[in-house]
Amino acid sequence: xxxxxxxxxxxxxxxxxxxxxxxxxxxxxxxxxxxxxxxxxxxxxxxxxxxxxxxxxxxxxxxxxxxxxxxxxxxxxxxxxxxxxxxxxxxxxxxxxxxxxxxxxxxxxxxxxxxxxxxxxxxxxxxxxxxxxxxxxxxxxxxxxxxxxxxxxxxxxxxxxxxxxxxxxxxxxxxxxxxxxxxx
Length: 184
Fold this sequence. Notes:
The protein is mainly alpha-helical. 70% of the residues lie in helices and 0% in strands. The protein has ten helices and no strands.
């Protein structure tokens, strides 16, 4: 007879997220995941097929719970929401750098193939929400073009947080970028 689980799937995902975020997919070991989650190898493999599956589920969990979509649907729509979205690139969770989904893209060549579609599919609705926020401000430039520029800035800022930079420096860049956007 199988022993009952002493953990929740969500709890494992919550605890695995900072490990994958800090070390990346390749450098996260099963031992790291066991230590962080408090679940042994057999328990993890009973819930997840392998490390790839745990990573994919962690990525999905992050996208679903990050609050980025909520940030972009706050009424009234407009530049304030875009500004809040860009600040997420400085660090979504206390102690973590950048955005987990964006940071994961650094390892796309070695990630499970499904990770590509998870991230790509998460970007489409974000772009649509950015377009709606930008359209609400009636800029002179096409909202779709500005949304693309905003997303590119977000990715760059998020990745830059992994370098020897400070949140203060990143915040200054976000503020300067927002000044430029508001003038367009």
